[in-house]
Amino acid sequence: MTSTRATVDHYERLAASHDHNWTHSGVFLDWMTSQIVSAASIGATDRVADVGSGTGLFARHIADQVHPAQPILCVDTSRPMLTQIPTSPEPQPVVAPAEEMAEWVTAGGGAGTAGELDVILLKESVHTR
Ligand SMILES: C[S@@+](CC[C@H](N)C(=O)[O-])C[C@H]1O[C@@H](n2cnc3c(N)ncnc32)[C@H](O)[C@@H]1O
Hints:
CATH topology: Rossmann fold
Strand content: 5-15%
Number of strands: 4
Bound molecules: S-adenosylmethionine
Order of helices and strands: HHEHEHEHE
Strand order of the largest sheet: 3-2-1-4
Distance between the termini: 9 Å
Shape: globular
CATH architecture: 3-Layer(aba) Sandwich
Number of helices: 5
Radius of gyration: 14 Å
Largest sheet: 4 strands, parallel
CATH superfamily: Vaccinia Virus protein VP39
Low-confidence stretches: none
Helix content: 40-55%
Number of domains: 1
CATH class: Alpha Beta
């Protein structure tokens, strides 16, 4: 999951159409979200990071299903993807590469809150070369 210039450029081009491509089926979104919540056993007290979250489309649906006590952290290298996340009340965008997660989670860095994560979600964000 190395963040290259080509990857960042690729998602900058796709950002505007990303949600449109996925939201053609609300049934699919609900189903996929339920699968994620069930597979990762996500509960309301869990602190969740969605790494490579894109627009936070699934993080938002997870929040709707789980009602987490703390905002889901949406971590992504692509600012154009993250800027599509509604400003309130959640999730919380973090512009950062996955490779630096250990540093900013420990330090509180871009996330604004230090501490442990209970769930780290990577959905279609691992790229191979
Ligand atoms: C195909 S999109 C998936 C978005 C979202 N997970 C979903 O399923 O709707 C892949 C996302 O991973 C991000 N990404 C790729 N490499 C990354 C890295 N090293 N660190 C953080 N984000 C990365 C991209 O910017 C892009 O937004």
